[in-house]
Structure formats: C-alpha cells, structure tokens
UniProtKB/TrEMBL annotation:
One of the Pfam families matching this protein, by short name: Acyl_transf_3
Residue ranges constituting the Acyltransferase domain according to the UniProt record: 17-334
One example GO MF annotation: acyltransferase activity, transferring groups other than amino-acyl groups
Keywords annotated in UniProt: Membrane, Transmembrane, Transmembrane helix
InterPro entries reported in the protein's UniProt record: Acyl_transf_3_dom
Name by which UniProt lists this protein: Acyltransferase 3 domain-containing protein
Residue ranges of the TM segments: 45-66, 87-108, 120-140, 161-178, 184-206, 218-238, 250-271, 292-313, 319-336
Length: 381
C-alpha cells in the first residue's frame, strides 16, 4: 500500500528507482493495449502511450549507461560497447521473427500461394532502440569527428534537441522527396523515422534531469507542469487529433513527451527524493528491471490466458476481464522476477545482451581498436 518516507526501503538506495518504475509503467500500458477486450478510451490511451514511453525511458537509460561508463572507461571502449549493445538489441528480437517467417514460408506458401517476405529492416521498438544505441555514440572534439557528424549524436544538450527535431524533418524530406530509395526508413508500424525521435527525446530528458536548475523539487514540478500545459496548448492551436494514429506527428509527440516527463518528475520527487514507498510502484519497478524479457513473457502469457479462457472472459464486462487479465500477468511477471533474480536472470534478454556484449568485446579486442582510434582521435577520456 503506502509507507511514509521514514519506513521506505528507498531511503538508503542510490539507484534511480523512477527509471525502472517508468519501464514497468510502459510495459503495463503494453499489456493493456494487447488485451483483446477493449475498454474504449482507456485501452486506446494505453496503446498510444506504450511505445513512446518505452522508447523515451530507453533513451534516458542509454545516457545513464554512458555516464556510468565515462567515469572509468576510455572512449574507444565505450564506442565499441555502445555499438555492440545496439547491434544485439537490434538482432536478438529479429531471431524469433525470422524463425516464424521461415516456418510460415515453408509450410504455407505452397498451399496459399502467398510468399512470406522476411525484411531485415523490420522496424519495431527494439530495432529503434538498437539504432539509438549504435548511432548515439560519443563524438570527440576534433576534425575527424566532423566527417561522421551526420551519423553520430554528439553527447551534449543542444545537439540532442537538434537531432530530436531533425528526426521529424528527415521524415518529411524522405516522404516527399526520397520515398523511392529511402521509403523503408519511414515504413512499418514503428518506422525508424520519426520514432527514433522518442528515443532521442529520452536523452534530452536525461540532460534535464542532470540540470542543476531543476534539482529543487518545487522547480522541477513547476517546470514539468509548464511543459505539459504548453504542449496541450500547442495541440489545441493546431487542432491535433489525439490518437494512436498521430503519434508520429510533432504536436502529439510533444504531448506524449511532456506527459512522460510530468510522470517521471513526480516519481523522482516522491520516490527518489522524498523516499515514499508505494506498493504499486514497487511492483512496477520489479517488472521494469526485466522489461525486455517481460515484453515477450507478457505476449505468451496473454495468448495462453485469452485462448484458454476465451468463453469465460467473453461473458464478463470488458472492465472486469481487463482487470483480471492484467492482474494475472502482473503477478506472473513479479513472481518470475522474484525467482529469476536468484539465478542472475540467466538466459533472459538482458542477460543475453550483457553476455553477448562482453563476448563481442573480447573477440574485438585488438582488432578494431586502431579503427576506433581513428574515429575518436585517439582520445582516452
């Protein structure tokens, strides 16, 4: 339920709990959005917020990763680790997609006459995060960096804002002038452009979090509220249609970013600063710690529950069936996390990502260092 600050387990913990809670919240929206029994505007808004929130907090987490590495690691190794992480985040989710595609292609193509095409540029949430990790690298302040400036996002506040806005400008340019050769970059449910903008905004949000001017709780609350109000006014001025179909339009993008920042600010103030403990946010934090793995577990659990008890749920009001299904999946994820952490989350997505990155770094040791030295200008810090 609720405990005062003096009783909170968060009081002596240096971890930024708001990040894991936001991950868990994004996953909660995804679960609700994927439940077949719709609850009208609640399900629609869950679907609208799920993907953007997931990308925003991933961008924020990426800068947390960079800041932790910059304290102890040379830039050349941060460059490689960031690239390898991005590569694996991109590739690992493609494996089940390719396997399923090959299965359908070999089994049903001859019967249906329909050819199943497997796209390497199969854009989804994880692929966008992978690109964000791979291209969001550190750019040193030397001449050589100017050559690759178009590909990499400099690690400073102003550049992150410019690149975030540029994601929407690039979308417009491709759709109107280069759709034939570059259309694959703006195609699909979650096209790379402009959806990479949500990831980049997450990096902007990290800079705001680090800002000395926003360290005071009152100032942070006022700033986040003003940000939300301004975005609502912009939506009103442009008569924006607030729906899942407009998430790739800038007014809706701005609203979702400001809404996420407002929620994140509340969590930072009351959980990380004031150390209040809420049972519900604690549960969200638990599943947020394994959010990549939980993303797939929730699909399997949801399919199994809805297929096995379809007749039962069809006779219930959508609100009741949603609440039951949501509660069951959350309990499943919490119990899995509780048991799995004793085994260091072995064979989960996060574990594969960590071990895979370590393995690639070992394999590349001494092979790419000279090339990385050219890119980073030989800078170690």
């Amino acid at each position: 339920m609720f405990l005062a600050a003096s009783d909170s387990k968060y009081k002596s913990n240096s971890r930024l709990h708001a990040v894991d809670i936001c991950r868990g919240l994004a996953l909660l929206f995804m679960i609700e959005a994927h439940i077949s029994q719709s609850m009208g505007w609640i399900s629609n808004w869950a679907l609208t917020m799920a993907g953007p929130f997931f990308l925003i907090i991933s961008g924020f987490s990426y800068d947390l990763f960079l800041s932790s590495r910059m304290k102890n690691s040379p830039k050349k190794y941060i460059f490689l680790e960031s690239f390898f992480r991005g590569f694996l985040i991109y590739i690992i989710p493609l494996i089940p997609y390719i396997i399923v595609g090959l299965f359908f292609s070999s089994l049903f193509s001859s019967v249906t006459g329909h050819t199943y095409k497997i796209d390497i540029f199969h854009w989804g949430i994880f692929q966008i995060i992978g690109v964000g990790y791979s291209l969001g690298l550190l750019v040193p302040n030397n001449f050589k960096s100017k050559i690759i400036l178009g590909l990499l996002v400099p690690n400073n506040f102003k550049s992150k804002i410019i690149y975030t806005i540029a994601a929407f400008i690039i979308t417009y340019i491709i759709s109107n002038y280069f759709h034939e050769p570059l259309g694959f970059l703006i195609s699909g449910i979650f096209p790379l452009f402009p959806w990479i903008g949500y990831f980049l905004y997450g990096r902007v949000a990290y800079e705001l979090y680090q800002s000395k001017q926003l360290k005071d709780d009152k100032t942070l609350m006022i700033f986040s509220a003003i940000f939300l109000i301004i975005s609502l006014l912009i939506d009103e001025i442009f008569k924006a249609n607030l729906s899942v179909l407009t998430r790739d339009q800038f007014p809706m993008f701005l609203l979702l970013c400001s809404l996420h920042y407002f929620i994140f600010s509340l969590l930072v103030i009351y959980i990380d600063h004031k150390h209040f403990y809420f049972s519900f946010t604690d549960k969200l934090e638990k599943i947020g710690k394994i959010c990549f793995t939980a993303y797939y577990i929730h699909f399997f659990s949801l399919l199994l529950i809805q297929k096995s008890f379809s007749m039962f749920f069809s006779n219930l009001p959508p609100a009741i069936s949603n609440l039951i299904i949501l509660s069951i999946i959350i309990i499943i994820l919490i119990q899995i996390e509780k048991i799995w952490k004793n085994y260091n989350y072995k064979f989960g997505f996060e574990w594969l990502l960590r071990k895979g990155t370590e393995g690639l770094l070992l394999l590349s040791k001494g092979v790419f260092i000279k090339h990385i030295d050219w890119i980073t200008g030989g800078e170690d810090h």
